[in-house]
Design goal:
By secondary structure, this protein is mainly α. Helices cover about 40% and strands about 5% of the residues. The chain is elongated. The C terminus is likely disordered.
Length: about 160
């Protein structure tokens, strides 16, 4: 056997081991749940497990509720700009899921998105930052309930 063939087969062995280890990770019982695993996207567009997830010791797992509808942005001046430009790359739910940032952080976030390829014209970037600061910044908003630091949220 040639040296090249030996190296190629040595590279394939870990992959085969992972595939064989994931072969038994089918449905667990009659509930339709299956074992967690490390997944990959193959060329057909299907997601398939490669290896069982190393932290999973049980046959089943549970997941939380998945939000089916996106959280709308707060109404305000600049909302249309944010919906138009930011939703090109990501859901606007990502914005409302962020903690409240000071204006300089929102400015850096918008600059980062422009650097990553967001087609935001420079003359509109300041308006987007203003909207984000007014509605998701450190300033209190009329729509937010007052927060008492002494009270803890209910579980």
């Amino acid at each position: 056997m040639s040296r090249r063939r030996i190296l190629a087969s040595a590279a394939v062995l870990p992959l085969l081991w992972c595939l064989s280890a994931g072969a038994d990770s089918g449905p667990a019982g009659g509930n339709g749940l299956s074992e967690a695993g490390v997944y990959t996207l193959d060329s057909s567009g299907l997601i398939a497990p490669i290896c069982p997830y190393p932290g999973n010791t049980g046959p089943t797992y549970s997941v939380g509720a998945y939000p089916l509808a996106p959280t709308p942005l707060r109404r305000g001046k600049g909302q249309e700009l944010v919906e138009s430009y930011c939703s090109i790359c990501h859901s606007v739910t990502l914005i409302s899921a962020q903690p409240r940032f000071p204006a300089e952080i929102w400015k850096k976030e918008v600059e980062k998105m422009i650097h990553l390829g967001a087609p935001i014209p420079p003359e509109l970037a300041a308006q987007i930052v203003d909207y984000l600061q007014q509605n998701y910044g450190l300033m209190p908003n009329k729509e937010d309930p007052p927060r008492d630091p002494a009270t803890k949220p209910a579980p």
